[in-house]
Amino acid sequence: MIIFVKRLSLKGYKMTKITLERLIYKNYLKTSLTSIFFIELVLVVIYFLVNNKLIEKSTDFILRDLKENTYKLVDEKTKSIDKKLTEMELLAKILQEEHQHFFQYPHSYTKSEKPQFDYAQNGMYYKVDDNGGSSVVVSKNTIIDEVLKKELTNAEFLDSTFKTLIKHDENIVAVYFNSHKNYSRYYPFLENSYNVFPSDIDMQVYNFYYEADEKHNPNKNVVITDIYLDPAQKGWMLSVIVPIYNQNKLEGVTGIDITLKKFIDSFLNIELPFNGKSFVINSSGKIVAMSKEIEKILDIKELEEYVYESNEKINETINKSDKYNILEYKDKEVANNFKNIIENKKYSHTIKINNQNYFIFTKKMEKTSWTIVSLIKEDDVLKDVRELEKYYNNLGYIIVALIFVFFALFFFFLHY
Length: 416
Hints:
Elements: E1 2-9, E2 12-19, H1 20-104, E3 117-119, E4 125-127, E5 135-138, H2 146-154, H3 159-168, E6 174-179, E7 183-187, H4 207-210, E8 223-224, E9 228-229, E10 236-246, E11 249-259, H5 260-267, E12 277-281, E13 287-290, H6 292-298, H7 332-342, E14 350-353, E15 356-364, E16 371-377, H8 378-415
Antiparallel strand pairs: 1-2, 3-4, 4-5, 5-7, 6-7, 6-11, 8-10, 9-10, 10-11, 12-13, 12-16, 14-15, 15-16
Helix pairs in contact: 1-8
């Protein structure tokens, strides 16, 4: 059978003859391919849905693995710091026992060559020569009588343990005893110690003394101080201190010093996945120590080695300024999140700092009120997954484009 159909041409209508067989074939193709087209669209939609699901599963797996490994590493480092601080506490307790025994049962200096003392021009009484032991300096306001002179000489007995601690622990930079009589026995020896400390030095104004006194430490435990500027001109310091009692009388405070730099180098070298970095905050939100990378993230410059000016004396406790308090951070959302961390409340495990997202991991330390905080950049963690997602999404877009092009061309030629 032959069927005539009208076709529009430039000269008007003209009759075109099409066989019934061809007409049925064309309609069949249209119907079949239209069905195929919608089936392919459904398959493409399924492709994208499955792809997104796989990306979600991959992301969840990576994050779960990240959390497990990071918490494990942070926990190990926290235990390592706690262990080290426990060792320091033990050393401080050993010193406490030795020094309390010294005051309860005075030792007599038995060596033939006694240490030499003299008055400096500023009025301080000090140990003149380095005999391999501690330097000693006494406030000009302290009365130098025979009892005190004997105590200063007999206390040379304490230097042996001081030297042993310094020799066998590279983290310890100094060991000392500060008396309520306002004198300091300090090892290693400070040359011209009368020029290091204020001439009228008052031990009670320094945190490495008063934090261990009866008012602040009634239980007479070992205390770990916050970071302070060292009057002995060793820079930024933290100390492990312990009170020394003779019966119920506070004779003074014995301490072990660790510089901020040594603490950072020794204890904040946590090798986290994806180049994550850590820092330490105390219970009031102040940053105890942080690495160079954390400085860049928070846009807060860590304290560098302090350069003492000529004849500069530290007359009181100088702590880190409030700019190091994370609770006063310029971004209030970040500050509130850290507030929740410190207060053991629910907090967000992702945080945005300076337009960059970070995963945050925290661990409280047992020996102090400190918390270790670790930050890992989200982009570094999800970089490979996002690249894979982009690749498969682009592949899907190409497939969709090819389908549309194919069917567009097909229907175009089929029409003509």
